[in-house]
Design goal:
The complex is a heterodimer of chains A (about 240) and B (about 90). In chain A, about 80% of the residues lie in helices and about 0% in strands. Chain A has one domain (about 5-220). Chain A has helices at about 5-10, 20-45, 50-80, 85-120, 125-140, 145-170, 175-195, 200-230. Chain A is globular. Chain A contains eight helices and no strands. By secondary structure, chain A is mainly alpha-helical. In chain A, α4 runs parallel beside α6 and α5 (about 125-140) crosses α6. Chain B has one domain (about 5-90): Winged helix-like DNA-binding domain superfamily/Winged helix DNA-binding domain (Arc Repressor Mutant, subunit A), CATH 1.10.10.10. Chain B has four helices and three strands. With about 90 residues, chain B is α+β, with helices and mostly antiparallel strands. In chain B, strands 1-3-2 form a three-stranded antiparallel beta sheet. Chain B is globular and about 50 Å long. Chain B has helices at about 5-20, 25-35, 40-50, 70-90, and strands at about 25, 55-60, 65-70. In chain B, about 60% of the residues lie in helices and about 15% in strands. In chain B, α1 (about 5-20) crosses α4 (about 70-90). Classes of the chains: A mainly alpha (about 240), B alpha+beta (about 90). At the A-B interface, α2, α3, α6, α7 and α8 of A face α4 of B.
């Protein structure tokens, strides 16, 4: 069994000094994702573009994944202190937490798949093949922890490519920020891949992920502020 | 080839044209400003009146002006936000 899988079974992917701090980071990310989701739903009500539906689904899945991850990690970090639990209770709880952990990863993977769909609009046939790839990756994740992250790196690579192409075309600051946030997600997945070798990679991955979401939410805030400025012009 | 404007693009152009003129505009100026045919404009205006995004104002010398309502300004703001957001994401 690899070190990474041991970490899942022990339930801890984080260095000891980083315990709970990662939950704080994930909670901040969850709040950011919910804020972005709320903004996109508002736009979706105005526009009939299919991309909005895809985007909403992606962010819903990502937010659910973080919610589940927070719950699982909170349980894992407090579990050793549960008084009066016998071996079977602990074993059952552990199995349940591993299942929840894997489900949270599945949700995140499908969320990224929807981001990919938003940019590449694959046919239902190709989407089926891509989804199969994710399922296979998830299966092997049980024994080789890094495989799922490898697949996510692959998807995020193509998403980054598209976001950079968009920046090249528009030359706008906001498109640059969005491209940067996808680059940070891409790098965070690379760091998670190497979690097997050193738990510090988890810390770096978490920080990169947080920065990515902060970049993304800053775009939405700037867009809203621009809108308000334009509105106030009418009183001049 | 120039891309055909969507319904939302046309509404946005109409509201932006009124805003550019200080929030009030003559119907003919709106027609030219938003690049619409007369029947097309009438059709779109019906929807905008129904959603209370625009209203009619009577001029002192006679005749009508079309004005943006508060809802109209808010809607235009949302549309501008949305455009910028779409550009940032490249969707």
């Amino acid at each position: 069994m690899t070190l990474g899988m041991n970490h899942i079974i022990n339930g801890v992917c984080s260095p000891e000094w980083f315990l709970w701090k990662d939950i704080i980071i994930d909670t901040i990310i969850l709040l950011i994702v919910i804020f972005i989701l709320y903004g996109i739903i508002k736009y979706m009500k105005i526009s009939r573009k299919k991309e909005y539906k895809t985007m909403v689904t992606a962010f819903e899945l990502v937010s659910l994944s973080f919610l589940l991850k927070i719950i699982v990690n909170s349980f894992i970090y407090t579990m050793p202190t549960f008084p009066g639990w016998d071996f079977w209770n602990m074993h059952f709880m552990h199995s349940l937490l591993i299942l929840a952990f894997i489900i949270s990863r599945v949700l995140f993977a499908i969320g990224v798949l929807y981001w990919y769909k938003m940019y590449y609009k694959p046919s239902s046939h190709s989407l089926f093949l891509i989804a199969s790839l994710v399922v296979i990756a998830l299966y092997f994740t049980r024994s080789q922890f890094y495989i799922l992250h490898m697949v996510l790196v692959l998807f995020l690579f193509f998403i980054v490519k598209k976001a950079l192409f968009n920046f090249e075309e528009k030359k706008g600051k906001l498109s640059m920020i969005i491209a940067s946030s996808f680059i940070l997600f891409f790098l965070s997945q690379i760091f998670f891949m190497f979690l097997e070798f050193n738990l510090m990679f988890y810390v770096i991955g978490e920080i990169f992920q947080l920065l990515g979401y902060l970049f993304m939410v800053s775009t939405l805030i700037v867009v809203k502020m621009h809108g308000k400025k334009k509105k106030s012009l009418r009183h001049c | 080839m120039v891309k055909k404007r969507s319904r939302l693009d046309i509404v946005s152009d109409m509201l932006a044209t009124i805003q550019k003129k200080g929030g009030e505009i003559k119907p003919t100026h709106l027609m030219y400003g938003a690049n619409l045919a007369h029947t097309q404009m009438k059709q779109y205006m019906k929807g905008l009146y129904a959603k209370e995004l625009i209203k009619d104002i009577k001029k002192k010398k006679g005749g009508n002006l079309i004005a943006l309502t508060d809802n109209g300004y808010k809607y235009l703001q949302k549309l501008n936000e949305m455009r910028e957001f779409e550009e940032a994401f490249g969707i």
